[in-house]
Amino acid sequence: MEMYMPAETVPFRSPTESCAAPARIRHQHGDGLDLVAVESSPVSELHLTVTPMPGESINAMAKRLAEALNPWAATVLRQFVFGSATASRATLKTLRQVLDDPEMPVTWVEGAACADNAIAGMQTHAIAGARVRTLSGNGRSLARTWEDALATHCVVNPILPTRSPATPPEQAREVFEKLQTGLASAGMTMKDLVRTWFYLNDLLSWYGDFNRVRNDVFAHNELRPPSLPASTGVGGRNPMGAALAAAAWAVRPHDPAAEVLHFAPSPEQCPASSYGSAFSRAVEIGCAGFRRLLVSGTASIARDGKTEHVGDGRAQIERSMQVVEAILESRRMTFADTAFATAFFKHPADAPLFADWLARHGLQSMPVVSACCDICRDNLLFEIELEAVQADG
Fold first, then answer.
1. Could you tell me which residues come within 8 angstroms of residue 48 by beta carbon, excluding any fewer than 6 positions away?
2. 33 neighbors 48 (Cβ within 8 angstroms)
């Protein structure tokens, strides 16, 4: 039987103390570091994107992240690192030391840098002024939770299978079992999921099997359209050599009748469930003084579910960005509201095409990590996921 041990890592302030006024959102862009701070007194949420400077060491990257977080006395809720698996051990050790957080949750994806760096980038979501609980069971960290005025949030990160030997589909089932265990530690179920991330080793060889496992698990737990989580599923090895690594975010509103969540369709694409993938195009979360939009991994897929612009990286980037822009506009947002973005390239040679698109649209300051990963179809060359925040009012 699992025993769950919550550990408070930040002084608690009641959600009822939160200010009902619109949050203040600040965007700071600098070389190699972007910060989007959402300040809604007494709570501040921080979104940091760190990318390597020329010739910079891993230690120097980690210290820059720590220097950005330290003034806030913030606790990390979730962290994604894209880079060489061989650099993972030293990087994780350094990150946990400089941030003074030995249990810090990190999902590591071997998304190779599109330039000559061991690390493509780091994305850190942290919070200050609220209680963060680290939930543990059987000697391991399972999840981190926090509350705002409207809901309880839970991040399970990372999720890795441990059974060996096991086929990739068997490992996928274990990942979903561990996800359910992590959610249960926070008093939640699969029905509370709003966002999932799946990074599959040798993606194209078993993505169909993965979808069948996910569909089966979701059906068993009564998750069905339109109330499916937003999601990303791309290729990427993990340091453990497992068939996949995953992370997830769940939200449970304090008032079940409150309209805290909105599962948003794409104006430009059919539902992903039309071609066998169980996720929503985007999910909007109402928070204290602001709205958060989680946009799924988005690629050049037509309204009929077929790949568009086969073999043309520039056109696929253009089309993918048009689709994301339409989703943002449908929720009264723009690219200027971006807090995090991850751009995935099948071929590193296509990365400059995306940089060119950003420049042509005046978005050079977008907080984005560019990584080389397989996309879920062999003829897809580009995919982008995005998280946006906008103050109420």
1. 33, 34, 35, 65, 68, 69, 122, 123, 124, 126
2. yes
The reported pLDDT for the residue numbered 115 is: 66
Please give the pLDDT value at position 85.
Answer: 87
* Tally of domains in the chain: 1
> Model confidence over 268-288: pLDDT tens digits?
999 998 888 999 999 999 998
Side by side, the strands of the sheet bearing 230-235 are: 5-8, 133-137, 140-147, 151-159, 244-253, 193-200, 230-235
- Nearest CA to 282 out of 271, 35, 258, 166 is that of 271
What is the domain-level CATH number for residue 380? Answer: 3.30.1330.40
Model pLDDT for residues 96-123, shown as the tens digit of each residue: 999 999 988 899 999 766 667 789 999 9
The helix (H) or strand (E) run that includes residue 323 is helix 313-330
* Domain of residue 311, residue span: 5-391
Taking the C-alpha atoms of residue 33 and residue 69, their distance in angstroms, rounded to an integer, is 12
Residue type, 339: A
What is the pLDDT averaged over residues 274-303? 95
Q: Could you tell me the pTM of the whole model?
A: 0.93
Torsions phi, psi of 348, nearest 5?
-60, -25
Residues paired with residue 45 on neighbouring β-strands, in sequence order? 38, 127
| pLDDT score of 144 more than 50 | yes
Placement of tokens 């979808």 in the chain: 211
CB atoms closer than 10 angstroms to residue 379: 15
